[in-house]
UniProtKB/TrEMBL annotation, chains A, B:
SUPFAM superfamilies: cAMP-binding domain-like (SSF51206), Winged helix' DNA-binding domain (SSF46785). It comes from Nitratireductor aquimarinus. CDD domains: CAP_ED (cd00038), HTH_CRP (cd00092). Residues 14-103 form the Cyclic nucleotide-binding domain. Keywords: DNA-binding, Transcription, Transcription regulation. Gene3D superfamilies: Jelly Rolls (2.60.120.10), Winged helix-like DNA-binding domain superfamily/Winged helix DNA-binding domain (1.10.10.10). Residues 148-221 form the HTH crp-type domain. It comes from the Bacteria. This is Crp/Fnr family transcriptional regulator.
Length: 233, 233
DNA sequence: CGAGAAATTGAAAAGATTCAACTCTCGTGG
DNA sequence: CCACGAGAGTTGAATCTTTTCAATTTCTCG
């Protein structure tokens, strides 16, 4: 078996500072996996067996309440680590990971985490920088949920998606995977009805264009105004 | 100068796994500081010069929006690290730290962070476990803000404070530092008016007792019911 | 004791949800 | 190839929670 090609991960921030030989060693422990849209990579509460890096596609990280309501904690894009419960000192996954589109990922056994970070210190350092960034993101979201109303929160959520996964088209910037009103609602703590109304209003204004499981941002600039609007039109 | 006594920090989780001699070395770089109630330890946006461990008192970590609204990100209790921007790969503080009561803390220069974690690996490991825990907490809060209404959020916030800093009294469990309705509002994303009404209702029910800058939880059990209530009484 | 901060409370208004009905879109199978 | 059905989206009306506005009241510290 010819092993995986180091160029797969060589350019990812998570693996920066590693030599080609080290990458090869690392890949020796990795297992490539494919997930079709809607497939569950791991479920909240599961024993954490692996950590992952996303090579292609988009992953939705979801937390469910005891009452069954879902909240989308974040979207993972290509190159990002996910399922890193081991690095956080947890033995079960605190959230579920679902393929938002066709996905390819590499998985390492969690049992190897300590060994790998000991052998490749920059892997640990990079990971913790990632975790630090996510903590900032989470706090930002708490602030948004505390101080903004739905329209602004939806605007911020869309802008984040545009930056993270936007794909330029003739019309504007399109979110690069199927996303429903319900998904946006679960990202912003609103109902799909309210989200629908907000998007509808923006569409009339020519700021976005919607579609079944599609959102195209026509004017990111004007969307930013909506995101920052302290009241008024 | 006789140096600080290792017993100050020997029992704190952040320093577990360190030898007495190592603690002494560590303390050699630390500077003890006192802050009076309301004093600012560091301000959001400041160049991050130090990281801290709290030896006595309570610290409020606050994020402000451009519009001047404040959100309390978390309370730091005795033994916890704070201001660890360095560990998160940030050069400025993402939030302000304010003494919620008379405080004593130790400060280390951030410049020493890399050196110290290199010399004392368990310090790094402990810190990252802390950060991981805080990421979980932040996500939990996002979920609460998304799915619960004000009364439940206030109940959860109080229960967290009780667990973290509760002091048993004849009447019940008292939050161990001065806390206003406004503070609780900033923890829960509500207005002080709504918080006041909620607390007032609970007081009539005998679940809590309020006072100027004081909250005593008389029946944590019944408060927990409020926190979990999916609608109804 | 007085003054300012903190807390309470009623009434009106706003924002979002809930409920309900209806429409549109797309993929599948006859 | 077209019809059908389920999932996705839209939209009006009623309702509800929370905020906003505006007074007051209460407390505590100096």
């Amino acid at each position: 078996m010819p092993g995986l090609d180091p160029s797969l991960i060589a350019d990812l921030p998570s693996f920066s500072g590693l030599e080609r030989r080290e990458l090869e060693t690392l890949l020796g422990y990795a297992q490539p996996l494919r997930f079709s849209e809607g497939a569950t990579v791991f479920a909240q509460g599961d024993e954490a067996e692996s950590f992952y890096v996303l090579l292609d596609g988009h992953i939705r990280v979801v937390r469910s309440t005891p009452e069954g309501q879902q909240v989308i904690v974040r979207y993972i894009s290509v190159g990002e680590l996910f399922g890193i419960a081991a690095a956080l000192g947890r033995s079960t996954y605190p959230a579920s990971a679902v393929a938002a589109a066709e996905c390819v990922a590499l998985a390492w056994p969690n049992a190897k985490w300590d060994e790998l970070t000991a052998r490749f210190p920059s892997l640990g350092a990079n990971t913790y920088k990632t975790v630090g960034g996510r903590l900032q993101d989470a706090h930002t979201r708490v602030v948004e949920m505390s101080t903004e109303q739905v329209e602004q929160r939806v605007a911020h959520a869309l802008l984040r998606l545009v930056k993270q996964t936007g794909r330029k088209t003739a019309e504007g910037v399109e979110i690069d995977f199927p996303i429903t009103r319900q998904d946006i609602a679960e990202m912003t703590g609103a109902t799909l009805h309210t989200v629908s109304r907000v998007l509808q209003a923006w569409e009339k204004d020519g700021i976005v264009r919607g579609g079944r499981k599609r959102v195209v941002v026509i004017s990111p600039h004007r969307l930013l105004l909506k995101a920052e609007a302290r009241k008024e039109s």
